[in-house]
C-alpha cells in the first residue's frame, strides 16, 4: 500500500470535493430543469443497525428526501448550502470553528436558525449527506480529549511533542487529533482509565514504566477526540488498548462506547469505534475477588444493567456473566477503592494480575 | 531577600514540622496530665470576613475546641491524628493522594468515616488547624487545571515544558502546580478565557503573538490549580492577568472567584486569590456597544445579579454599574457571540479595543 505524499492535504482535497459535489448536484438539477433534491441518510432509530462483522453500530440504507419543491424544506435547503459553504471556507483556510460559533455566524445569513439545536442537527445532516465527519468539515467539538502520559512522540504542525515530557498531567488530545502525526513510540500497550485520580496514581507509581504503557485519562465519558486517538493507536500503531473504569453500569457504558461506538453517532463509528479494545475492569468478579469497598446498586443502576444485558454490544459471554454477577451481588465499586490496600496496590498487584489474565 | 536554596524541600520540611507539632501538642498535654485539646479555627459563615486591604475573604479569629475529654469528640480526634499521620507519610515520600483515596485508605484505620463528606471535612479541619493547604498536605484535587498556551518555560522535576510547544490544546496545569518552577517567559500579560471554544479561537488567530500573551482556557469555574497558577504568574512574574468570560452572572462569578476568592475557601484565599487580576469582559456595556446576539436574562439570572450587587467583592463602581446595566437591558451574551462579525473579530477587534481601554 503506497502512502499518500501529504495525507493531510489529500484529506482536505477530498472534503472540499465532497462539498463541491453537493453544490454541483443542486446546479445539475437546476440545469436539467429538475427540482433540486438531496438524499439525506436517516439517523432515526429504525435506521441504526448493529453490524456484527464490524462490531459497532452503523447506519442502514434508509434515507429521506429534502427538496426545493417542498415549501417547508426550502429554508432548510438554503441553510444547508450556507453551512456547506461555511465549511468549505473553513477547510480551505485550514481553520476550525465550534458549532456555537457557526450558530452565531449564521446570524448574517438572513436565514438564521431558531436555536442552536437546529444548527447542530443541520451540521449532522451535512456529515451524513457528504460522508465526512464534523472534524473533517472543520466543525470542532469544544471539549478537549483525554490526557496521555507515556513514551510516544507526536507531531502537530511543526511542533514535536513527547507525551512523557509534557508535565505530570500529560499531553492533552486536541479536538484536531486527526492532524497529529504519530512519529514514534516505545510502548507495548495503552491503558485508559476513567478518572484523573487514577491517571495521577498511575503516573506517580510509574505504571508507564512498569507496564511499558501509555496511560490515558478519559475524564469520564470519552470525548470524540479521545475515541479517535484510541482508534488510531489501535489501527495505525497496532497497540492493544485496555480500558479500566469504575465497576458500575456507567463505567461499563464508557468502555463500550469506546469499543463499539454509540447508536447516536452510528454515522461516524467507523472513525471512532475501537472494536479490538478490551475492558479490563473493574468487573463484578473483581469486586468479589479483591473484596473491594462497595456501594449498593441503586434502582437506576439495576435498571441500567438490565438494559445493557439486552444491548447487542454486550452480547458476548463475558459481559453477560459480569452483568448477571453484578445484579446478583447488588454492589458496585469505584476504581479508587483499591486504595483500601494502600495507594500502590492498584499498580503493584491489580494491574499485573489483570494484564496477565487478559494477555495470556 | 535571600532565596532558599531548595524551596521545595524547605516547604516540605515546614509542612512536616507543622504536622509533627500537632502530634506533639497532644503528647505535651498528656505529659502535663492535661486533657488533650485542639483549637480549630471556625469555618462557619460568622467567621468569614471580607478583608478590605487584602481584597479577599479571610477567616476571622473564632475557633472551636476539640477535646479528648468530650466523649463525642474522641473519634474525631483519633481520625484527625490518622489523617495527619497519613499526610505526613505522603509529604515525606513525596507522594500525593486524592481525598477519595484517603477515604478508602481510612477503611484500615479501625475508625473509618461514615461517608466521604465526613473525611473531606476532616481534611479541611486539618488544613485550618495546621495552616497548610491540602496541596501542601499531599491531598490533591482530582481535577486538572486550565490549559495554557504561550511562550513560557516551566520545569516539573527534570522535565522542561514550553507551553508554546505542547500541542494545540496547550500545557495542562497539574494539581501539583506548586512544584512547577517558572524558568522563563517572553510575554507581557495573561488572558484567561472561560471556554475552550474561545481558547482554541485565540490559538488559531495567533492571539498569543498579537498580544504577546499567555492564553489560559479556564474550562468554566477555575480549578484550585488554575487559581494558584494565576496567583503565581501575577505575584512571581508580575504579569497583569485579564479574565474574559461570558457576559452573564455566572461569568462574573467565575472571574470574581479568581480575583477575590470564594467565601467557602476563606482559609486558603491567601494562596489562591489574585486581587490584581482584572475582568476584561464580556460586560453589559460590551453587549450594548458591540450589539451582540443575546439571550434574555432568566429569573435565576436576575436574582443572582441582585445577590452580586450586595456582595462586598463587587463593591467598586465599575462592577456596580455593569450589574445595574445588565439588569436594565435584561440581557446576557456569550463570549462566542462575537462570531456574528466573523470568526476573527474577537481577536482582531474586540480584544485590542478592550486591552487599550484597560491598560491606558
UniProtKB/TrEMBL annotation, chains A, B:
EC numbers on record: 5.6.2.2
Q: Domain Topoisomerase 6 subunit A/Spo11 TOPRIM: where?
A: 190-355
User: Which residue numbers delimit the Type II DNA topoisomerase VI subunit A all-beta domain?
Assistant: 142-185
Q: Biological process GO annotation list?
A: DNA replication; DNA topological change
Reaction catalysis annotation: ATP-dependent breakage, passage and rejoining of double-stranded DNA
Where along the chain is Mg(2+) bound?
194, 246
Q: Which Gene3D superfamilies match?
A: 3.40.1360.10, Winged helix-like DNA-binding domain superfamily/Winged helix DNA-binding domain
Q: Where is the Spo11/DNA topoisomerase VI subunit A N-terminal domain?
A: 75-138
- How does the record describe its quaternary structure? Homodimer. Heterotetramer of two Top6A and two Top6B chains.
PANTHER family documented for this protein: MEIOTIC RECOMBINATION PROTEIN SPO11 (PTHR10848:SF0)
Protein name in UniProt: Type 2 DNA topoisomerase 6 subunit A
Q: Which organism is it from?
A: Methanobrevibacter curvatus
Amino acid at each position: 500500500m503506497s502512502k499518500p505524499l501529504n495525507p493531510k492535504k489529500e484529506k482536505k482535497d477530498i472534503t472540499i470535493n465532497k462539498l463541491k459535489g453537493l453544490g454541483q448536484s443542486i446546479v445539475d438539477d437546476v440545469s436539467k430543469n429538475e427540482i433540486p433534491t438531496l438524499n439525506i441518510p436517516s439517523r432515526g432509530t429504525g435506521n441504526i443497525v448493529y453490524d456484527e462483522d464490524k462490531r459497532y453500530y452503523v447506519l442502514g440504507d434508509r434515507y429521506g428526501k429534502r427538496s426545493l419543491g417542498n415549501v417547508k424544506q426550502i429554508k432548510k435547503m438554503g441553510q444547508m448550502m450556507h453551512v456547506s459553504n461555511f465549511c468549505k471556507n473553513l477547510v480551505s483556510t485550514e481553520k476550525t470553528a465550534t458549532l456555537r460559533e457557526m450558530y452565531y455566524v449564521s446570524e448574517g445569513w438572513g436565514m438564521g436558525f431558531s436555536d442552536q439545536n437546529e444548527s447542530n442537527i443541520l451540521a449532522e445532516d451535512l456529515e451524513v449527506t457528504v460522508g465526512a465527519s464534523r472534524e473533517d468539515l472543520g466543525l470542532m467539538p469544544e471539549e478537549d480529549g483525554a490526557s496521555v502520559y507515556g513514551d510516544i512522540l507526536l507531531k502537530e504542525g511543526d511542533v514535536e511533542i513527547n507525551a512523557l515530557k509534557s508535565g505530570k498531567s500529560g499531553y492533552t488530545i486536541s479536538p484536531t487529533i486527526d492532524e497529529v502525526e504519530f512519529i514514534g513510540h516505545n510502548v507495548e500497550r495503552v491503558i485508559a482509565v476513567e478518572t484523573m485520580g487514577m491517571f495521577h496514581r498511575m503516573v506517580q507509581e510509574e505504571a508507564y514504566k512498569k507496564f511499558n504503557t501509555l496511560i490515558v485519562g478519559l475524564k469520564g465519558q470519552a470525548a470524540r477526540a479521545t475515541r479517535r486517538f484510541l482508534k488510531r493507536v489501535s489501527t495505525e500503531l497496532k497497540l492493544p488498548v485496555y480500558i479500566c473504569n469504575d465497576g458500575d453500569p456507567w463505567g461499563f457504558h464508557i468502555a463500550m462506547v469506546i469499543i463499539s461506538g454509540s447508536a447516536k453517532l452510528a454515522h461516524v463509528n467507523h472513525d471512532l469505534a475501537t472494536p479490538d479494545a478490551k475492558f479490563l475492569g473493574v468487573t463484578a468478579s473483581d469486586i468479589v475477588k479483591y473484596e473491594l469497598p462497595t456501594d449498593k446498586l441503586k434502582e437506576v443502576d439495576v435498571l441500567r444493567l438490565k438494559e445493557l444485558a439486552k444491548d447487542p454490544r454486550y452480547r458476548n459471554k463475558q459481559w453477560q456473566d459480569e452483568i448477571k454477577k453484578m445484579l446478583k451481588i447488588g454492589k458496585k465499586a469505584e476504581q479508587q477503592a483499591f486504595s483500601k490496600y494502600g495507594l500502590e496496590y492498584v499498580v503493584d498487584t491489580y494491574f499485573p494480575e489483570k494484564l496477565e489474565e487478559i494477555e495470556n
